[in-house]
């Protein structure tokens, strides 16, 4: 489950990353309005933790932009602004929760889980393409009704492609989306090849009517 943290206080940002990583989440961070807007426009997240006061803009504007384009990703506002007016404004713009600073990390975790759970209860987000059905809620994959066992990254890769059928995905963009900011530490992107190779074999073994096709020198697409 991938979470975006939009927070300009670097110490708090790092504390949240360290804590939530230990809880099994994949984290991406943005330290200002511009970075937050770019990541929210390009990638899908299970939840967004959003500060209101950013160096180059308002977190409220980011929330408004997200909702205006029909994106229902759960958003938990984390802010030193604890006034009722700010809380009401955030909730009216479509925030799922509002957590004033300072807060305990255990409470933040509970708020994240609650927001994601409420979102999933209202959305049937299973994805079907050809004879493959992917269920994000329990991270399961069915091919003609038979359970296809995938590891965590194989599931994430298939999910990324199945919601973008027939669309060419650049290798670097795929790496950032699945492996997060940690991909910057990798010497190369060759690890993607082995993940996709294993995934393709499993799909073939189950007679899936989909395949991930390599586009030489560019990336991949689901066909």
- Helix count equals 8
Q: What is the end-to-end distance?
A: 25 Å
| CATH domain class of the largest domain | Alpha Beta
What shape does the CA trace take?
elongated
Could you tell me the strand content as a percent range?
A: 15-25%
Please provide a written account of the structure.
One of its GO terms (biological process) is regulation of DNA-templated transcription. With 223 residues, the protein is of the alpha/beta class. The chain folds into 2 domains: 2-122, Response regulator (Rossmann fold, 3-Layer(aba) Sandwich), CATH 3.40.50; 127-222, Winged helix-like DNA-binding domain superfamily/Winged helix DNA-binding domain (Arc Repressor Mutant, subunit A, Orthogonal Bundle), CATH 1.10.10.10. Helix content is 43%, strand content 22%. The protein contains 8 helices and 14 strands. It has helices spanning 10-22, 33-42, 59-68, 84-92, 105-122, 152-162, 171-179, 190-205; strands at 2-6, 26-30, 47-50, 53-54, 57-58, 75-79, 97-100, 127-129, 132-135, 140-143, 146-147, 169-170, 212-215, 219-222. The strands form 4 sheets. It has a 5-stranded parallel β-sheet with strand order 2-1-3-6-7, sandwiched between helices. The protein has a 4-stranded antiparallel β-sheet with strand order 8-9-10-11, covered by helices on one side. Strand 4 and strand 5 (57-58) form a beta hairpin. Helix 6 (152-162) crosses helix 8 (190-205). The longest helix is centred in the middle third of the chain and has 18 residues, at 105-122. It starts with a strand and ends with a strand. The model has no long low-confidence stretch (mean pLDDT 86).
């Amino acid at each position: 489950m991938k979470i975006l943290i939009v927070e300009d206080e670097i110490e708090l940002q790092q504390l949240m990353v360290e804590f939530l990583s230990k809880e099994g989440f994949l984290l991406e961070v943005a330290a200002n309005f511009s970075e937050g807007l770019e990541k929210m426009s390009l990638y899908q997240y299970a939840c967004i933790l959003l500060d209101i006061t950013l160096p180059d803009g308002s977190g409220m504007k980011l929330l408004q932009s997200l909702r205006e384009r029909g994106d229902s990703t759960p958003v938990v506002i984390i802010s030193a602004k604890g006034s009722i007016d700010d809380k009401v404004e955030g909730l009216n713009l479509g925030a799922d929760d509002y957590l004033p600073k300072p807060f305990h990390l255990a409470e933040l975790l509970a708020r994240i889980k609650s927001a994601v759970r409420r979102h999933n209860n209202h959305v049937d987000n299973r994805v079907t393409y050809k004879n493959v059905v992917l269920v994000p809620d329990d991270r399961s994959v069915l091919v003609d009704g038979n359970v296809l066992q995938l590891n965590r990254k194989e599931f994430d890769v298939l999910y990324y492609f199945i919601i973008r059928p027939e669309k060419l995905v650049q290798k670097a963009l795929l790496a950032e989306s699945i492996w997060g900011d940690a991909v910057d530490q990798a010497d190369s992107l060759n690890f993607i090849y082995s993940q996709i190779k294993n995934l393709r074999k499993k799909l073939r073994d189950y007679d899936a009517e989909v395949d991930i096709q390599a586009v030489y020198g560019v990336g991949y697409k689901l066909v």
